[in-house]
């Protein structure tokens, strides 16, 4: 909350600077104001405008190229904001406080988070507690088998993209730290809370102690008939993250029944023993949970699962579904057992470890998470062919794995994090992600093109991964991560001035390496740069970091470098 308040203040400063610019002063044109508008249309228009107190119309000729209808009131000329907005790429809207309208102008649309304390790899990852990866449109759904997002960013059929999966993990890790404790409602724990399961005629249930799970479980068996079911009636509102242990034989399923309280609409989420990712038909949405017949725990955000099923059918996203729906039932069919059934506000730790687990399982021998989609990055650079690696995936992956090791003490995560370092030392042309600036300064490439691009934000995220691992490994180990971090920081501090445009920042250095026009960072990327530099300035006292962060933040409020 503190963070938000600080940003409101800097946003207001930006508005005040901006409003001054809105009124353009028209000097030395006094004689023009006495000349009558000659055309009939003009005078009709200008009378209409004057009636509303808007001055008379005047043509504004823009750079001798085209005209815009403006207004004149004595020696002031007013340009329409719709024109100014497009021409200068600024932002503004009319707001109303206590019945008083005012116009709020801002130079950029992004926020800066000033860190309150030194970055700690055991804590939140930068500002990721504000990320909601699963709601992004380019997330097709959360896999029923892996429990991690499936990306459609560069491939509509969907693929596992390590950067996105790691961001999902880091967001949930961070929310676990910043959010209030979730409300947990037990539906059936086999002991204190026993669900009142309803059993159809040709179905059976029994409660048994399971030695593997070391808990009482509910076994069920239904016949082939669709009417043969075992179900639990519930009435749960507000909380929608379901988790339970399951052990399903083939052809079994769990169905969650959701009801829209206003519209009397019913939605069925079916979790079925198949390997299909997602399939939806009207109000029936199917997620494959795999064919594994051993015990495992699944954790599902039911609202996300419903919205993704609708998106698949091009149905519009529902606003605030968490207030409109309730969980009204659970149905199991086939053969198997369930245990530890509960619903909570959130299950951040489970989502975080789903991401960490995927990173361990999907990691290849060289320590990488290859991207199976083709990627065109910049004109003049060859496309990245499926199987390319990204330093950003490596860095984010390391940030997740280092935290998973810290939380669990399981050295599998630590070893995977250390293995992920290897590709950072392999040149891009050899399938790695390393580039050199002027044959001297190492750069970890988010997109390992030839010639290299030197993308700034992905490089800094990689540095954070290195820092995370180094700190969590413990100071006394001889750390490859530490050496890679130090080398990277030297490159960053050397190259940082090249990213400064005098009024913003460059996203990458393609104008240098590819000889094409520069790629300016749009405001959200520029803000990412500033946030990253503030964070690094807390780790390294070199004044270039803090000075650049402050200057670049000023650019977001319309400040510019001086000219000669
Ligand atoms: C954070 O994770 C711990 C460990 O899993 C859990 O006990 C706690 O309730 C979680 N808190 C939040 C807000 O997610
Ligand atoms: C379900 O619970 C809500 C409050 O949580 C209550 O208002 C409603 O009457 C309940 N519905 C049924 C069918 O029990
Ligand atoms: C599962 O269902 C399919 C078709 O309904 C059937 O062909 C198959 O034999 C079933 N498998 C088992 C193990 O029951």
Automatic annotation (TrEMBL):
Key words, A-Z: Isomerase, Membrane, Signal-anchor, Transmembrane, Transmembrane helix
Residues of the D-glucuronyl C5-epimerase C-terminal domain: 366-553
GO cellular component: Golgi apparatus
Keyword Transit peptide among UniProt keywords: no
InterPro entries: C5-epim_C, C5-epimerase, Glce_b_sandwich
Pfam family name, one: Glce_b_sandwich
Top EC class of this enzyme: isomerase
Broad class of where this protein is predominantly found: membrane
Reaction(s) the record says it catalyses: [heparosan-N-sulfate](n) = [heparan-N-sulfate](n)
Associated pathway: Glycan metabolism; heparin biosynthesis; Glycan metabolism; heparan sulfate biosynthesis
Location of this chain's protein in the cell: Endomembrane system; Membrane
Membrane topology: Single-pass membrane protein; Single-pass type II membrane protein
Gene Ontology MF term list: heparosan-N-sulfate-glucuronate 5-epimerase activity
GO biological process, one term: heparan sulfate proteoglycan biosynthetic process
EC number: 5.1.3.17
D-glucuronyl C5-epimerase beta-sandwich domain boundaries: 215-335
Family as reported in the entry's similarity comment: Belongs to the D-glucuronyl C5-epimerase family.
Protein name: heparosan-N-sulfate-glucuronate 5-epimerase
Source organism: Parnassius apollo
């Amino acid at each position: 909350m503190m963070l938000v308040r600080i940003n409101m203040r800097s946003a207001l400063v930006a508005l005040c600077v901006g409003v001054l610019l809105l009124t353009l002063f028209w000097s030395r044109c006094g004689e023009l104001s006495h000349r009558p508008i000659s055309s009939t249309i003009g005078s009709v228009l200008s009378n209409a405008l004057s009636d509303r107190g808007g001055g008379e119309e005047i043509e504004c000729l823009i750079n001798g190229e085209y005209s815009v209808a403006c207004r004149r009131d004595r020696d002031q000329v007013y340009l329409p904001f719709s024109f100014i907005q497009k021409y200068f790429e600024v932002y503004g809207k009319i707001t109303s406080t206590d019945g008083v309208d005012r116009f709020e102008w801002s130079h950029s649309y992004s926020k800066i988070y000033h860190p309150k304390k030194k970055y700690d790899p055991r804590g939140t990852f930068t500002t990721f507690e504000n990320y909601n990866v699963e709601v992004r449109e380019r997330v097709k759904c959360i896999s029923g088998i892996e429990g991690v997002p499936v990306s459609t960013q560069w491939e509509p059929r969907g693929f596992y993209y390590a950067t996105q999966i790691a961001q999902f993990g880091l967001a949930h890790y961070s929310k676990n730290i910043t959010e209030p404790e979730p409300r947990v409602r037990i539906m059936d724990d086999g002991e204190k809370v026993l669900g009142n399961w309803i059993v159809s005629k040709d179905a059976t249930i029994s409660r048994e102690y399971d030695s593997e799970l070391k808990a009482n479980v509910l076994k069920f068996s239904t016949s082939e008939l669709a009417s043969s079911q075992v179900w639990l009636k519930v009435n749960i509102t507000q909380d929608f993250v379901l988790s339970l242990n399951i052990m399903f034989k083939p052809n079994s399923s769990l169905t969650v029944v959701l009801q829209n309280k206003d519209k009397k609409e019913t939605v069925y989420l079916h979790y079925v023993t198949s390997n299909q990712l997602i399939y939806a038909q009207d109000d029936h949405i199917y997620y494959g949970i795999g064919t594994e017949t051993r015990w495992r725990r699944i954790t599902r955000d039911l609202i996300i699962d419903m919205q993704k099923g609708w998106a698949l059918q091009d149905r519009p996203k529902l606003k605030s579904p968490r207030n409109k729906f309730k969980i009204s039932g659970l149905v199991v069919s086939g053969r198997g057992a369930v245990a530890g059934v509960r619903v909570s506000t959130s299950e951040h730790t489970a989502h975080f470890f789903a991401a960490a687990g995927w990173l361990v399982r999907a990691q290849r021998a060289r320590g990488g998470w290859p991207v199976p989609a083709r990627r065109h990055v910049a004109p003049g650079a060859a496309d990245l062919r499926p199987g390319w690696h990204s330093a950003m995936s490596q860095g984010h992956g390391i940030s997740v794995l280092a935290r998973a090791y810290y939380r669990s003490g399981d050295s599998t995560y630590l070893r995977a994090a250390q293995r992920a370092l290897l590709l950072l030392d392999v040149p891009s042309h050899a399938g790695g992600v390393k580039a050199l600036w002027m044959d001297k300064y190492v750069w970890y490439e988010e997109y390992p093109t030839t010639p290299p691009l030197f993308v700034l934000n992905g490089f800094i995220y990689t540095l954070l991964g290195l820092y995370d691992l180094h700190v969590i490994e413990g100071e006394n180990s001889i750390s490859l991560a530490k050496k890679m971090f130090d080398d990277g920081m030297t490159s960053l501090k050397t190259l940082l001035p090249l990213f400064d445009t005098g009024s913003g920042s460059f996203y990458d250095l393609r104008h240098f390496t590819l000889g094409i026009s520069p790629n300016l960072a749009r405001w959200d990327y520029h803000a990412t740069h500033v946030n990253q530099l503030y964070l690094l300035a807390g780790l390294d006292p070199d004044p270039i970091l803090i000075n650049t962060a402050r200057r670049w933040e000023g650019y977001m409020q319309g400040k510019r470098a001086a000219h000669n």
